[in-house]
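Methods — Computational structure assignment.
A single polypeptide chain was analysed. Its primary sequence is given first, followed by the predicted tertiary structure written as structure tokens.
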Amino acid sequence: MVEVWFGIIERQAIQRGTFRDVRELTTKIREFISGWNPQRNRSSGPRPRGAKADR
């Protein structure tokens, strides 16, 4: 899963980017993550035992 996550960051945030220093790169990655988290599908992931899927 970690490899997939870094692949997404690379393709969508830093690919072919030019960064003057590590701080600039870190800022770009953090901005991407901040935008990614609200988009996350809340229905995915584990459910409590006995919970039924919404359909």
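Note: Residues 22-39 form the longest helix (18 residues).
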